[in-house]
Each structure stands twice: as structure tokens, then as C-alpha cells.
Amino acid sequence: MSSNNAKIEHIINEEDQLRADMYSFLANLLRAEPDENLVNQLTMLDSDDSPIGKSIKTLSKLATSLDLPTIRDEYVRIFVGVGRGEILPFASYYLTGFLKDKPLAKLRQDMQKIGIKLEENVKEPEDHIASIFDMMSGLILGKFEKKYSITEQKDFFNKHLAPWVDLLMRDIESSKIAVFYSPIGTIGKEFMEIERASFSMNVSG
């Protein structure tokens, strides 16, 4: 994910940095089959006893106990499949039942306004959950011309994530195929609830 314009450095507070990092963390886990480097990083994670923290600990243990081919195969079975996977993590599909539908067109309009363009090697439509999570991280960190206010972040979240992301995360969490990805669904579900609560309490720009 990149900007059409030169990057500008912004001062980011700790809370926003943590939020942006979590969006990027989830995007990296959901973008494609994880490589050895990503799985090795997961084995070193530790966290607290919050719902997210417990799921991060579970994920770390699974990254240690499962071999890489098993983890990569699970991703393919859930999200790719033969013809199609169990779960299609695209806004258009979740909102309309079809790929590349109106939600994608609306997202592309907002991307153009903001100045966001996909990297050349990205083949999936822009409304893939990993891409939208990348966009949220970029809005928080000011990667697209400016640091977007909490009100602007909330508007983007409400338009492009809120209508479907909870269902997606619950589907991942409860997937009959998922072992490694189940706690990722839980982390995403809990984080989205935190984001909703934060936006509802603080809507000043």
C-alpha cells in the first residue's frame, strides 16, 4: 500500500502506533500463506491476559507446535481452496454475495480521493481484508499525505469495515478447518470491538 505523493513524517502517539501495528499485524497474517520468517516471529510473541493477549499466546504456541507446510496448507484451504476457499475475505462478497461489486467501487473512489494505490505485485481486489487493514494503518500513521483525524478514521472504518468485518472475523474464528487461524479470528474480532468503542467515545478531530 502506498501513496501517490511523497511521504511526510508525522508524530504518532503510542496508542495510535499500537493501533496501526495491530492493523498491520492482522493484515500480514491474512494477506497470504505465511512464510517462515513470519511464523518465527509469532513464536516469540508474548502478551497479557486480556482476550486479545490470550489469543496471541495461543497463536504463538501454535506457531511453535505446527510445522510451516501445515500452517500454509490451512491458509490455502480456508481462503483459496480449489475453485474457492471456505471464506472469501472481500467486502464485496460479504456485503453483496458477489466479488468486485459496489463495495469495491466505493472503496476505489475513496482510495483515489486519499491518494492510495496498491503495490504493483498485489493481485487481489482492493477490498480484500488485508488491504483495507493496511489502509487503516496508513491513515493512522499519516502515510497518505497527512495524518488523518480520529473522525476521518472513523468515517473510513464505518464505510469500509464496520458493515462486514465482525462477521468475517467470527467466520475465521469458528471455521471447521481453522486451527492456526482460529485465534487470529478472535484477535481480529476483539480488536474490532475495541476500535468501535474507541470511535464511539472519541469522535473529535
Q: Secondary-structure map with pairings?
A:
Blueprint: E1 2-3, H1 14-31, H2 36-43, H3 51-65, H4 68-80, H5 91-96, H6 102-114, E2 116-117, H7 129-141, H8 150-160, H9 165-174, H10 182-201
Antiparallel strand pairs: 1-2
Distance between the termini: 24 Å
Overall form: globular
Output the CATH class name: Mainly Alpha
Which parts are unreliable, with pLDDT below 50 for 5 consecutive residues or more? none
> Mind telling me the C-alpha Rg?
17 Å
Number of domains: 1
Helix and strand pattern: EHHHHHHEHHHH
Q: How much strand content do the residues show?
A: under 5%
Major beta sheet summary: 2 strands, antiparallel
Let me know the CATH homologous superfamily: TorD-like
Q: Which sequence of strands runs across the widest sheet?
A: 1-2
How would you describe what is shown here?
This protein has 10 helices and 2 strands. Strands 1-2 form a two-stranded antiparallel sheet. α1 packs antiparallel against α7. The protein has helices spanning 14-31, 36-43, 51-65, 68-80, 91-96, 102-114, 129-141, 150-160, 165-174, 182-201, and strands at 2-3, 116-117. By secondary structure, it is mainly α. The chain starts with a strand and ends with a helix.
